What we know:
By secondary structure, this protein is an alpha/beta fold. It has two domains: 3-137 and 319-340, ATPase, nucleotide binding domain (Nucleotidyltransferase, domain 5); 148-314, ATPase, nucleotide binding domain (Nucleotidyltransferase, domain 5). 46% of the residues lie in helices and 19% in strands. The protein has helices at residues 3-14, 52-56, 63-85, 104-121, 130-141, 181-191, 198-206, 230-245, 252-278, 293-305, 315-318, 323-334, and strands at 21-26, 31-38, 42-50, 94-100, 125-129, 149-154, 159-166, 169-175, 282-286, 309-311, 339-340. A six-stranded mixed sheet has the order 3-2-1-4-5-11, sandwiched between helices. The protein has a five-stranded mixed sheet with strand order 8-7-6-9-10, with helices on both faces. The longest helix is centred in the C-terminal third of the chain and has 27 residues, at 252-278. The radius of gyration is 21 Å and the shape is globular. It binds 5'-O-[(R)-(carboxyoxy)(hydroxy)phosphoryl]adenosine (KG4) and zinc ion. Zinc ion is lined by residues 130, 134, 155, 287-288, 320. Residues 29, 134, 155-157, 182, 185-186, 197-200, 203, 287-289, 291-292, 319-320 line the site of 5'-O-[(R)-(carboxyoxy)(hydroxy)phosphoryl]adenosine.
Amino acid sequence: MDYINSVKKQFDKIQNKENVLILSVESSCDETSVAIVKNGREVLSNVIASQIDIHRRFGGVVPEVASRNHIMAITNVCKEAVKIANIDLKEIDAIAVTYGAGLMGALLVGVNFAKALAYSLQKPLIAVSHVHGHIAANYISHEFLEPPFICLMVSGGHTALLKIEDYNRMTSLGTTVDDAAGEAFDKVARVLGLPYPGGPEIDKLAQTGENSIKFTVSNSLKNTLNFSFSGIKTEVVNLVHNLNQKNEKINKADIARSFEECATDELASKAIKACIMCNTKKLVVAGGVGANSMLKEKLQKLCTENNIEFFSPVLKYCTDNAAMIGSCAYFMIKDGLGLADLSLTAKPNVEL
Ligand code: KG4
Ligand code: ZN
């Protein structure tokens, strides 16, 4: 029997299987990660080889360098994940992989590795969207969390408010019309001379600064659930350039604090507005910027005031990791979705 027919039968069977063990692979940007996840919520292992130190000297991710390092790391990361989970590869029910969105060359390493593994083990291959994975990170961190809920998706590549109707059904309530929130954090950090990745650096520095500078977000989007971060980013860049030209002192901590206050006010207030509009009592944050301490504080405060339950992933599942991909794949399998054949390829852009 050929590969796809053999795995289709297994795929149908695992939909109703009591315990489902998934090996998942993530390589969309600068983290090479493999995880073993049981029943979508229990992480047996989640190994991440981060390339942050390699890309730091360039001030951002260099795509070709990222893919080369994924190739060098992926086999050992996988071996380590299997070893920590203390399982035999034969016990795995399916292989899941991020096929997009992300850097083409980086994604291809994970996709081809997962295809080879799926073929050699004769196991179903599940194609997972990176953004959907970020949402699923919350199912790992919160054992009893179930849809429906509103999700504030904030990463380096995406910023959106989503109505999660079911595990595999969602509608977009609003998105960024220009930059993603993470992009703005990274750009502001860069202009302040902070190392890559900028988000966590702004988070730290802002804690020592004053909210003394008035930055603004676009007024034209005030009555929508859309976001714009390019304006505030440009305001910061212009301010720093002006101060530099006049040889005046740059108070980096105050700039970081004022920028962060402005950006997180916008994100938090619109997230709550979405919950109120949809009459939803659960708000979930997902993606790397979801690790931001001020954003989480504001979301928690506004949720408490409005009688909404607030959920955020444990820090290590906020940024890129394979466990969230394994979790997402589990809920896809249960709905009969995601089975890919060996023609699966990487996609730099994927619809929300
Ligand atoms: O979700 P993620 O790891 O990768 C993408 O899918 O893009 O998000 C990375 C983004 C980067 O822009 C990074 O600066 C930002 O998340 N980030 C943060 C924090 N930790 C990571 N931004 C603000 N505060 C943080 N603590
Ligand atoms: Zn991500």
